[in-house]
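Person: Please comment on this record:
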Amino acid sequence: MAIRRSLLVLVATILMSAGVSFGQLGAPFSGTLEPIIDQGASADGAGTGFLYSVLDYYPEGPKLMVNGTFEGMSSPATVAHLHRATNGPDDPAGPTPGPKVFDLVVSEGTAGTLNGSFWISEEQAEELKQGWYYVQVHSQENPVGALRGWLIQGFLHTPEDSP
């Protein structure tokens, strides 16, 4: 729960410093970072995290801001990326991990933050709304990927968030 509060404070600070009022926020996306158990990642993967993103429209086109926090990784993070699935969420087997689309800035530790801001195409904005994109954090022990979180439109709500 503390990780989510920290992330929300971080996002609010970024938005206010950019001159964006809360009434101007675009479409929110969120996700949970969880250990990856495929792609040859270590079976003892550890760590969790939370993603919060905003898709906003400007005269220049759609812009995606991606922010996240993570903790409890078994080795320090090295890089993080935004990826696009090769098979979408409507595929009977579910979305399939795919290629890197954008690099994110990530803290190099077992806990930290990640962020990035990107101009995207209208087609990418529509795919984002349909659930085609995810964030992947790589680490020293799991260079192919340690944590993954799919971006889902709206805010995640878990029982621990309830009063």
Q: What stands out?
A: The helical segments are 2-17, 122-130. Residues 2-16+28-157 form a domain with the Immunoglobulin-like fold (CATH 2.60.40).
